[in-house]
Amino acid sequence: MSNFADSIRNVQNYVRLPLLYEHWYVAGLCEEFGRTPKERRLLERSLVFYRTLDGRLVAAQNRCLHRSFPLSESTLEGDELVCGYHGIRYDPEGTIVRIPSQKRCPDRKLRTYPVVEQGPFVFIWMGDESADDSKLPAFPFLADPDMKTLYGEHRVEASYLLMQENLNDLTHFSYLHHNSAGFDDSFLALPTTVTETPEGVSCYRVERDPKRAGARLPPDVQARIGDRPVEQWDGGLALSPGVFKGDAPIKVGDPDSDDVEVFNRYIMHYLTPETRTTSHYWWSYTDDFTPSVEGLDEAMTEAFGKVFAEDAWAVDHMQKLLDNDHFDYQELVIGGDKAGLLFRRVVLGWVESEYGDGNTQR
Ligand code: FES
Ligand SMILES: [Fe+2]
User: Does the beta carbon of 67 lie inside 6 Å of ligand 1?
Assistant: First the structure.
């Protein structure tokens, strides 16, 4: 048993596990980064983001190699970052191209990080191993012009692991989101399927009652479903430390044949630790059936934002107690925690593969 194995038995220790670097995370929204250098703190590191003249996004260590001045407080000249303290210039690869006070440029490089833009999001690789493209989650629907994608963000004053446990848990919907999303106890009566696959841990509930399924859908979608047999899926798949893919289709059968009409919905959550106890949280909602009606996107974005702010609010409070209440006890485990507990084991595997030698310094 590794030194970390005990940590997953107790939430106080679980949220203090070292951060995982050998994965892709969301760094922000593409629209946030432009020609003005901007700081973002990710995984206990300060990074600077900017775009080159041809629009390429650069992510680099924010601390100037010379005296730790923040490059986010510096200027961009052409494609070169010019430190605001003594004028050292860096090209987009992080190479020092000029030191104004001397002729020689030492062979040192500012660390840069691979980034990939996908739909509205920037994904970043901060691992020491070279970027593993096979681990980059591919979400083509985010950029599909035939689908609607809405998105938003919240700050979370809590460990990203508490948010992941919240996403792996479908039993809080009927209480935390009862007023905002209309879930009630009937949702808890639905059978839950929890599966561990090589892709990750998945947890789903399927509503087959046409009335109850329809109650949370726009009226025109309810009308299209009519009296046909329906399966409305809720839940999703924890793919990586920072990505939860809510794959929540509505499948509508035809009573006279095997045909199934699928209304696709993807409710995605992207969590990126800022520190072990504070996190960035972005979400996106994509579907291929909501009509374009003036004002609807804004109303839906607000409604989703309200629901996800409740999750952030809940875990913020939990983190506060974990930090400040020193009455140490073992949390009660109930059936609905199954997916979250399975995910703890997956997290443990990732921690052991990064820190198996016990050295937690990065
Ligand atoms: S601190 Fe940046 S050039 Fe000196
Ligand atoms: Fe929730």
Answer: yes
From the alpha carbon of 64, which atom of ligand 1 is closest?
A: 2
- In a shared domain, residues 161 and 91: no
Asked if residue 176 and residue 55 are part of one domain, the reply reads no
Given the CA of residue 68, which atom of ligand 1 is nearest to it? 1
Q: Domains in the chain: how many in total?
A: 2
- Residues 317-328: tens digit of each pLDDT: 999 999 999 887
Q: Which atom of ligand 1 is nearest to the CA of 88?
A: 3
Q: How far apart are CA 144 and CA 142, in angstroms?
A: 6
Label residue 54 exposed, middle or buried (CB < 10 Å: 0-12, 13-18, 19+).
exposed
Helix (H), strand (E) counts: the chain = 9, 20
Identify the pLDDT of residue 352: 94
Domain extent at residue 107: 25-125
Q: Is the CB of 345 under 6 A from ligand 1?
A: no
- Protein residue with least CA distance to atom 4, ligand 1: 86
Tokens of 86: 């003594």
Last residue within a domain, chosen from 67, 94, 125: 125
pLDDT at 161 over 80: yes
Residue 360, in any domain of the structure: no
φ and ψ at 345, to 5 degrees?
-65, -35
Could you tell me the pTM of the whole model? 0.95
Q: For 85-120, how does the pLDDT look when each residue is reduced to its tens digit (9 = 90+)?
A: 999 999 999 999 999 999 999 999 999 999 999 999
Ligand 1 probe mutation, 66, 71, 74, 80, most atoms within 8 A of CB: 66
Tell whether 142 and 260 lie within a shared domain: yes
